Amino acid sequence: MSKLGLPLFDKIKNKVLKKSGVIVMGRVFSPEMLVNFQLFSAGHFAMLGLFVVLLASIIFFRAKIRTSSLTQNLFRWTFLTILVLSEVTFQIWCFRYGVWDPTIHIPVQLCSISTFLAIYFLLKPSAERFEFLYYIALIPPLLAIITPDLLYGFPHYRFSKFFLQHIALPLTVLFYAIVQGYRPTFTAIWKSALLINVLALPIALLNEKIGSNYMFLEGPPITNTPLSWFGDGGWMYILSLAVVTIVVFIVTYLPFVFIRKATITSYSVGIPLIFVNSISDYVLFGEHSPNFC
């Protein structure tokens, strides 16, 4: 939530607090904050642990998953269901409790854009679509899991929705890299950066028109996140975001560069290629031949 949205949030909260007779289950979904989110609280660590356990399971059982189309489809449809329900139920929740506001709840934040790209990819997987998804839906959701822009704590619906959605996004990317053998290319860094900037233009106009802060183009969120390091807005803030986006995309690609160099070097000095392939398979890439560009 942006700093601009905090007064609106207080108005919504005060309006809801006037209502009484809400049952316990209803309070889990009520806009009234049951527990303020605390960074690195027990609930936060539980979600971080869930991500680590799920990723470790994909890595350790990758060989068995590859041999079972049923298991692969189970992962695929689980990711798809979580992502679809995250966006749909959030809009329903906003309308149900009368808190929907165009300056906050239009699904054009980066996480929603990543979600729509992931849904499209899961419905129609392809190498080209994976390249965009890899750069946009891997590091940003991981950073969001570590430093969430979240006001609701466990056991609120918004807490569960936030973490399940942001866990499903990088797991989708890593599942298709580890199990299915999909690869990003270096040229896709510039394509993905261009896509982000093209999307940012109409969103910036929307922000100016209705006073919103989608994609945090007007300034960082109210909670402490890495975006807070770049200032409170203005052209230097926007320029910093553009530069950092490219840097993050390049860093995201580096593991593939290191594995490729290790493979070529090991082959030239006579280390068996099967040994190097087994290491790269264990680290990230699966047993398929990488497509470097």
How many DSSP-defined strands? 0
The number of helical runs is: 12
Radius of gyration: 21 Å
Largest sheet: none
Mean pLDDT across the residues is: 82
Q: Determine the structural class based on helices, strands and strand pairing.
A: mainly alpha
Low-confidence stretches: 14-23, 266-280, 282-293
Any chance you could write out the topology, listing elements then pairs?
Elements lengths: L5 H12 L6 H6 L12 H19 L1 H5 L2 H28 L13 H14 L3 H10 L2 H8 L10 H22 L8 H24 L24 H34 L4 H13 L8
Helix pairs in contact: 3-9, 5-6, 5-9, 6-7, 6-9, 7-10, 8-9, 10-11, 11-12
Question: How would you characterize the overall build of this protein?
Answer:
The chain has 293 residues and is mainly α. The chain has 12 helices and no strands. The chain has helices spanning 6-17, 24-29, 42-60, 62-66, 69-96, 110-123, 127-136, 139-146, 157-178, 187-210, 235-268, 273-285. The longest helix has 34 residues, at 235-268. The protein is globular and about 50 Å long. The model is unreliable at 14-23, 266-280 and 282-293 (pLDDT under 50).
